[in-house]
Amino acid sequence: MSREKVPLRTLGDCRSFLMGIAILMIIFCHAYYPFFGVYGKVFDSVTSFLQSGVEVFLFLSGYGCFYSLSKTKVTAKSVFRFYSRRFIRIIPAWFFIALFSAALKYFFAGVEFYDGLSQFSLLAFFTKGSLGCWFISVILVLYLVSPFFYELLKRSAGIYKLVCILIFVASAAVILFVKTDPVFDVVNRMLINRSAMFWLGMYAADKVSRDQNAVSALFKRQLSVLLCLGILLFAAAMIFEWKYYARLLFVPIAYAATLLLSKSAYTGHAPAPWFKLLSNLGAVTLECYLLNENVRACVYTVCKRFISNQIFLSVIVNAGMLLGTAVLAWAFHQALGKLTAGNRTGKLYQK
After folding, report:
1. Rg (CA), the chain
2. Residues 36, 239, 58: CA angle, nearest 5 degrees
3. Considering the entire predicted model, what is its pTM?
4. 3-class SS of residue 6
5. Is-contact 333 346, C-beta < 8 A?
6. Cα dist. 225→111, 211, 221, 263 in Å?
7. Cα–Cα distance measured from residue 317 to residue 325, given in angstroms and rounded to the nearest whole number
8. Which of 44, 55, 96, 337 has the most CB atoms around it within 10 Å of its CB?
9. Cβ atoms within 10 Å, residue 133
């Protein structure tokens, strides 16, 4: 293996690399593990932790969002350009992959085309609490309001932090202590509570834009606070109901993980082959997210007809899911790039 190294000087240098790690966490938390009893509990715990890849991705999305907004003065024209770029990046991929995935499940998994298509509904998240395509609904809302939070951050970082903390604390309190409508409960847990990572990403980008060593400073100052917060939330989760409230742990865990990853990137050099591979994977995270569960369902449906051993089946299904997702995501990324005349964010790594 080549010993060539890639120097990483800022979090922006390794953003796609970290996104590649995050999407791998998300893909494997959707993997197929046929284990029960003690082993089943272990894998449940592992997959629950891997779900924090969503928070890492939200943090990095907020980080990138800040820099996109900071390129020019915030005006109606620049905000419209910001919205249009996000729209072109997300909506065509969502539309064509929805059609492709519905067809894939119809032919290979025996799912009716309309049923396969309905899981990609963006409004169903808000009206029915559907989790079929919840992340796209959430990220679109966050992009929609991000220019307002950006302006608040630039005017007063103190007020920005206070507003974000109040939103997170209020959301967490509702999750822990208030019995709400099931649809609102889903929106609260997935959008309001998890949006904390997006706002933290914008805050970190603001700090880094003022001082390139800010990530180290954030790491030293806040890791202990995050550790204490994580312990408190873990205790709350254990006292009430672990599986239901475990998502509250994801914010401090994922923020600390992101800081640790970026800290290690600052203090050394990434091996070039792995850096290129994960950076390229990070460039197609949207396509990977939209595809991976449907690819897994189709691979599982086909393979279980020929393989009876569950352990071997899980290896084949997960390997097929990872390889199939990566190849299809790359193909869609290339095709959509040509369709939109290259006017999309998320470029493959170039040495």
Report:
1. 20
2. 75
3. 0.81
4. strand
5. yes
6. 47, 21, 8, 17
7. 12
8. 55
9. 21
